[in-house]
Amino acid sequence: MSLLESESDSLELTRRHFIESLWLPLLAVGFLWLVHIWQTIDAFDPGLYGIMSRKIWGIRGIVTGPLVHGSWKHLISNSVPLFVLTFLSLYFYRKVAMQAFWMIYFLTGAAVWLFARPVSHIGASGVVYGLVAFIFWNGIFRRSLRSIILAAIVMLLYSGMFMGVLPDQEGISWESHLLGSLVGIFVSYIFKAELEEEEEERDKPDRELELKKPFLPVDIFEKTKLQRQLELEEEIRRQNEENSYFPPFWNQNKTW
Question: Three-state SS across the chain?
């Protein structure tokens, strides 16, 4: 049984789920590229659609800010991790992936509007950082073997990104990175109990063992007071016999 297999009992279901998990990442990245092509042709200022902190007109940037980018380099740097991380979320956490994605998208934007510097914040990097934190902290909160392995893979691939949360980086919305990461942790915590079927199956034996283990001896209420007293006396007698063979050193007659 593969630890990272989605539907281990059926190769066909695994293949189907793999294909289904590709649709949203492809649509999301494709839409970003269409927006940037339109931006290049029309030559509009992407800052007009960014998140302008604490400005009424800047609220619309919560929706539009992640869709616009300052350059092709900016777009490409966000497209690859957005595709990979969205796919991983959908494939391995399909119960909550869609809810988690949209919560990260809108909550990150709202947090940037509330707390970030009063400049226009553009780009999907806040969502990317949120997805990195979501997948990594699932390994911390869920503690299933699969989630831990996935967290380790994400950390290996994107550990260098965490430098992006440091403040005072010119031309970089470090607030989006930091706030997106915090939102990702929050969303991971919210959904920590929503285990996938594979995680539930692996945890089931341990949970059943805990449920079957009695808090008190099963026969405690069947024994009479006299029986419990006799058992106590027998235990004391046995301990006295053991002490008679191996007396404590402070009771021994010392010879030199």
Answer: CCCCCCCCCCHHHHHHHHHHHHHHHHHHHHHHHHHHHHHHHHCCCHHHHCEECCCHHHHHHHHHHHHCCCCHHHHHHHHHHHHHHHHHHHHHCCCCHHHHHHHHHHHHHHHHHHHCCCCEECCCHHHHHHHHHHHHHHHHHHCCHHHHHHHHHHHHHHHHHHHHHCCCCCCCCHHHHHHHHHHHHHHHHHCCCCCCHHHHHHHHHHHHHHHHCCCCCCCCCCCCHHHHHHHHHHHHHHHHHHHHHCCCHHHCCCCC
CA distance 58 to 39: 19
The tens digit of pLDDT for each residue in 88-127 reads: 999 999 999 999 999 999 999 999 999 999 999 999 999 9
- Whether 186 contacts 137, CB under 8 Å: no
| Sole residue written with tokens 């010879």 | 255
pLDDT for 227 beyond 90: no
Query: Are 138 and 192 a contacting pair, CB within 8 Å?
Result: yes
Query: Where does the pLDDT of residue 13 fall: very low under 50, low under 70, confident under 90, or very high at 90 and above?
Result: confident
Here the tokens at position 37 are 């092509």
Calculate the CA 217 to chain-centre distance.
39
Contact (Cβ atoms closer than 8 angstroms) between residue 32 and residue 67 = yes
pLDDT tens string 42-69: 999 999 999 999 999 999 999 999 999 9
**Count of Cβ atoms closer than 10 Å to residue 72 Cβ:** 11
